[in-house]
Each structure stands twice: as C-alpha cells, then as structure tokens.
Write a structure and sequence with these properties.
Elements: E1 2-6, H1 11-22, E2 26-30
Parallel strand pairs: 1-2
Length: 33
Amino acid sequence: MKAVVTGGTGFIGRALVPQLRERDDEVMAVVRD
C-alpha cells in the first residue's frame, strides 16, 4: 500500500512511519524543514 504521512517527524508520525515500513508499505513523509 502507498501512504503519504504529513507531519512525518511529529508525535504521531514518528510512531506511524516505522510501523508502515515494517509492513513493507511505500511511505512518503511530508516534513517541515
């Protein structure tokens, strides 16, 4: 599955992105620099 996560470095994003990657999902994280 493909997923776009806004706030990839935020409170929820930090927990969500690794879990999605463990499931072999394709993840695009949008972050603010």
